[in-house]
Amino acid sequence: MSKVRIPVIAIFDVGKTNKKLFLFDEHYQIVFERSARFLETTDEDGFPCENLESLRLSVFDSLHEVFRRDEFDIKAINFTSYGASFVYLDENGRPLTPLYNYLKEYPEEIQNQLYENQGGEDTFSLATASPALGSLNSGLQLLRLKVEQPVVFRQVKYAVHLPQYLSFLVSGKIFSDMTSIGCHTALWNFTKKEYHQWVTQEGLNHVLAPIVQGNEVFDAAFPGSPYRVGAGLHDSSSALIPYLLNFHEPFILISTGTWCISMNPFNAEELTKEELDKDTLFYMTYSGTPVKASRLFAGYEHEQQTKRIADHFGTTSARFRNMEINWDIVNELKREPISADLSGFSTIDLERYQDVEEAYHALVMHLVEAQVASTALVRSLHTKVTRIFVDGGFSKNNIYMNLLAAAFSDVEVYAASMAQATAIGAALVIHEHWNSLSIPNNIIELRFFRH
Questions:
Q1: Cβ neighbours for 449, distance < 8 A, ≥ 6 positions apart
Q2: pLDDT one-digit tens code per residue, 87-129
Q3: Distance between CA atoms of residues 85 and 142, nearest Å
Q4: What integer best gives the mean pLDDT of the chain?
Q5: What is the assigned CATH class of domain 236-451?
Q6: What is the distance between the alpha carbons of residues 396 and 374, in angstroms, rounded to a whole number?
Q7: What pLDDT, in 10s, does the model give residues 160-176?
Q8: Residue 34: CB partners within 8 Å, gap ≥ 6?
Q9: What is the CATH number of domain 6-231?
Q10: Do 208 and 199 form a contact (C-beta atoms < 8 A)?
Q11: Which residues contact 261 (CB under 8 A, 6 or more apart)?
């Protein structure tokens, strides 16, 4: 008797460090997981960058492995990855250059000339909802290729962001998607809802692939393959999808990690210069609607300052992991003003604190103060948010969550946990094309924090 095979979707979740493949069943449970890390290579200037060939081979090796397994019936494949770098393809679909690193220094001359041509940095950044971030504005990477390597640029048939390149490897079809175009690329005019005029003026539009929404699917490139292939998604936008599909009342998601990003999908009010200067921008949902987002480097700051505290008091960072909130300490520390400046705590002499517990409470109070200011930037004047969800590392921090709930006393604050939110988002967005069941309502586990 033949064994019943489990219907699954394969999701490639490609981070800068870890490259993962997940198989999810129809209940969105992980039934298979594979992780890989590659050695970086270098570009022609010796700057470290992603090894595209290793990545390409890994996609096919991983797929061959899961296709050989009898217990799984792969119905669909999708991709999510960091999106701030372009892959430049020739007419045969082969990469012409390395995948340039978005941390690479950007030539000021090219950047300044572009801003000058477009009415100045502020005007340009406001229209494209992209703070001036050098190579992190991927559209500027494309301009750099045209200026510095015109011979290579003339051979480019298509420039696609990394998630769409991964999709192309399996589908053979080349498209751009809204989530990748909308993440600080400096390509999109958010007011006019089209590519910014500079893209056409510089002749870049002819190498940009046709745009599709993030819930599109294609047939696989291999004849007779029964599975569908998604267009790929930018990772931050993918992590928002489970919340968009589960909650319809206005909410803000604070996605915490090295960066803490506050995302409000219910706020499309135009950016102000003040917001832009405070690292506020727009992302885009898979359907192309703007998501106002503010960024705070709080996870990194937490890491640096916990090391400083641990060294000072002769303990280890593990000491802070399960520390519970002590309201007496909080009330004592509140007697002095707490700065909303993220680096405020780093200037404080630790001698002023009696012990490690007091010092750590003071650190988290500073971080929460800075987070409240950052999140306030994306709260809408017209649409009242009723809930704030916090996912990622800080959602497990008892002191942080209690202080945040106290600071946002007019809304419900929840710690949200979900295994692999980014990958699940990429699976959910094409749910109807592979899954015969309805979307389960228990994918996100919530813990309410009273204030």
A1: 401, 402, 404, 405, 413, 414, 415
A2: 999 999 999 999 999 889 999 999 999 999 999 999 999 999 9
A3: 9
A4: 93
A5: alpha beta
A6: 20
A7: 999 999 999 999 999 99
A8: 20, 21, 62, 65
A9: 3.30.420.40
A10: yes
A11: 236, 254, 255, 293, 294, 295, 296
